[in-house]
Amino acid sequence: MNFYSRKWVRPEDLNANGTLFGGSLLRWIDEEAAIYAIVQLGNHRVVTKFISEVNFEASARQGDLIEMGLVATRFGRTSLTMRAEVRNMITRKTILTIERMVFVNLGEDGAPAPHGYSTITYERDRMPTIQPATE
After folding, report:
1. Of the candidates 39, 6, 35, 66, which has an alpha carbon nearest to the alpha carbon of residue 126?
2. Domain ranges of the chain
3. Which among 127, 114, 49, 124 is positioned nearest to 76, based on CA atoms?
4. What are 84-130's pLDDT values in tens digits?
5. Could you say which of 3.30.70.2750, 3.60.110.10, 3.10.129.10, 3.40.50.2000 is the CATH number of the domain covering 2-105?
6. How far apart are CA 88 and CA 124, in angstroms?
7. In whole angstroms, what is the distance from residue 115 CA to residue 42 CA?
8. What pTM, to 2 d.p., does this model score?
9. Which residues contact 109 (CB under 8 A, 6 or more apart)?
């Protein structure tokens, strides 16, 4: 598993107990996973379909640095399944694990579409080159 993305826990990310708010962390990991799916599937049209049990193991406090890691575990015909882990760079503790996050590749019509991949890429060769049209 590679840990590429890092976040700095700031005051606006805290809950009433003064620790990292789980909702903020889930937003960050969902965004990171979507970006990972875009790179792996070569399509900017991906959506979150499923997130398995979220296991919060530790927390983070203001000023801590966290890092998020993802790895593809399965390529379906129209989907990508991955595993996620978030860890505290200061305390070295695992903050969160998610065993399964499933993203679906969509066609221009918004329906699930085959992506044609079966292996992980570590390059940016699958990055979409055409930007979505803005209205």
Report:
1. 39
2. 2-105
3. 114
4. 999 999 999 999 999 999 999 999 999 999 999 888 887 767 777 66
5. 3.10.129.10
6. 27
7. 8
8. 0.87
9. none
Assigned token pair, 60 = 């983070």
Point out which residues pair with 82 in neighbouring strands: 72, 101
Distances in Å between the Cα of 102 and the Cα atoms of 45, 73, 130 are 14, 10, 24
Q: How far apart are the C-alpha atoms of 85 and 106, rounded to whole Å?
A: 25
Ramachandran quadrant class, 51 (left: phi over 0; alpha: psi -120 to 50; beta: rest): beta
pLDDT tens string 6-50: 999 999 999 999 999 999 999 999 999 999 999 999 999 999 999
Q: Which two tokens stand for residue 118?
A: 């079966």
